[in-house]
Amino acid sequence: MGRFKNKIKVYIPDRIWQVMRIIFNPKKPKKKLRVEIHVADHCNLNCRGCDNFSCLAKPNYLDLNDYRKDLERLRELFGDDVEWITMMGGEPLLNKDITVYCSIAREIFPKALVRIITNGTLLLKQENAFWESLKKDRILLFVTKYPISFDYDAAKAYAEKMGVGFEYAFESGDVLKTMYMTPIDLEGRQNPKISYQLCGKGNKCITLKHGKMYTCETIPNFFTFNNFFGTDIKVTDDDCIDIYECDDPKKIMKKMASYAPACRYCDNIHYSSGIEWGLTEKKITEWVKK
Ligand code: SF4
Ligand code: SF4
């Protein structure tokens, strides 16, 4: 479907394509929850325009007790309607307890798909215990191939030898060449409804952080951007839903399928074409367009 859409898009000017997306493709609440959890804020790869701002983040790991408590609450709210739990970051393999997070997810959600999204570069440094634990807990490694000198296929072959599921982020195993980063409007002058509707992340990259659910991974990480550049992107309680205050899973899913006030900081109207992958120089202009 994605390829088909891309073919159509070649013949339709961007502006018309945007209007069509707003009118014909409104976001709807999902029936099953696919949730992302950042177990490490920082990353070892430092990509330009990282949407999680991980290349700007100080080393920081998710507290294991908070994590367990949040997953137990999700179980209470959604039961088996939690379809996917994704451990990511930053680079999740920087967290030395990564297998513990995976085992907790598997214990609480025996039927869910539990996976780690990783840049893969630390895989060949892992000890046997890592592989045995992932195999036991049926964890899938979901690996993005970056254009760097790392033998991804050797990592894949090793994972398979150790009985651990391994998938590339792109079906064809292609290398990521373009970063579709969020272009930031520091003044927050964008129409949040339109920006959300044009965004590929809202309602798709639902993120759980410290007992709150966000429609995307960008909002809960704006604090990293603010800390690094001294900016004042405002994130409030209206941008998320507290899973301890809300007892209604339908209400939570509805909130995920609605724009957040913080969407006004994303300029998806004027900049949607992505940037060539490269290492960051940590300049604000990588994210903020004039
Ligand atoms: S895009 Fe992924 S690999 Fe690159 S810096 Fe961000 S988290 Fe790390
Ligand atoms: S803040 Fe809104 S527009 Fe920006 S990435 Fe998240 S969902 Fe998309």
Overview of the molecule:
- InterPro entries: Aldolase_TIM (IPR013785), Radical_SAM_PqqE_MftC-like (IPR050377), rSAM (IPR007197), rSAM_sf (IPR058240).
- GO terms for molecular function: catalytic activity; iron-sulfur cluster binding; metal ion binding.
- Pfam families: Radical_SAM (PF04055).
- Keywords: Iron, Iron-sulfur, Metal-binding, S-adenosyl-L-methionine.
- It comes from Butyrivibrio proteoclasticus.
- This protein is of the alpha/beta class.
- It has a single domain, classed as Aldolase class I (TIM Barrel, Alpha-Beta Barrel), CATH 3.20.20.70.
- 30% of the residues lie in helices and 15% in strands.
- The chain contains nine helices and ten strands.
- The strands form three sheets. A five-stranded parallel β-sheet has the order 1-2-3-4-5. A three-stranded antiparallel β-sheet has the order 7-8-9.
- Helix 3 links the parallel strand 1 and strand 2.
- Helix 3 runs parallel beside helix 4.
- The longest helix is centred in the N-terminal third of the chain and has 15 residues.
- The radius of gyration is 19 Å and the shape is globular.
- The protein binds iron/sulfur cluster (2 copies).
- The site of one iron/sulfur cluster has 15 residues, from helix 7.
- The site of one iron/sulfur cluster (SF4) has 12 residues, from loops.
